[in-house]
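Researcher: Next sequence.
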Amino acid sequence: MALAIVNGESGSHPTLIGSVQRALRLLEAVAAHPDGAPAKQLAREAGLPLPTTYHLLRTLTHEGYLRRENGVFVVGEGAECIGRAGARRRQRRQLSEVLAMAGRELGAAVYFAVYREGEVEVVAMTDDPRRPPVDEWVDFRTSAHAHAIGQCLLAQLDEASRKEHLARYPVRSITPFSLRSEGELLQRLATVRRGQVAYERQEYAMGTVCSAIPIRVGSAAATLAVSLPVTELHRLRSVTDRLRKMAEEVLTTLAFSISI
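Model: Next structure:
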């Protein structure tokens, strides 16, 4: 009687591809030697016949997952990309957990953003339905002048970088409370630099108030920010003060996240 195979499985046992398993064992063996290892040693450690090992090494090298250097095999760019992708996912998950914890403690939506390659980038934000983040109804990148995150990041740039950004994304009002000119924005940024905090009240989104504090990690401009309903404006300064204290505790996590 023939067995039905559904979604790559026969009965309750998954269909395994032996050549893939052998290639993965070989990759693991190579990864255990940062300075590389010869084929015979890798065959022994992976438990593979030497002819099979040579065949897999040639294939993995051709595909960029391994490199051969001075007679030994080392991890190649293809495998490194997979490792970096996994590391980025772990960093994002860790960052999300840190922000979620901060959001619960502060009773606010919390954001982490960086200025990277000429653009404002919100790396992560909380998603608690009880304290939902601001809807990005106007692209955060093009409206940096109108929200606390952008103002905090722009305040950290040198004059040339700031002028270049505003040349691409001129100041424009998007709510009745928005700044109306570049001159007004530059005055605001000077205040942000002096006070080390950006406060914004309904300039980006009606019904919402925000604050952002600068975080400098090496040469990267970054910020932690919070948003509250406008009905809780009275809480904004105390929440911001608490956020500043918490930032010192989570700075290591945020520093790793700069590279996400």
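Model: The radius of gyration is 26 Å. Residues 1-12 have pLDDT under 50 and may be disordered.
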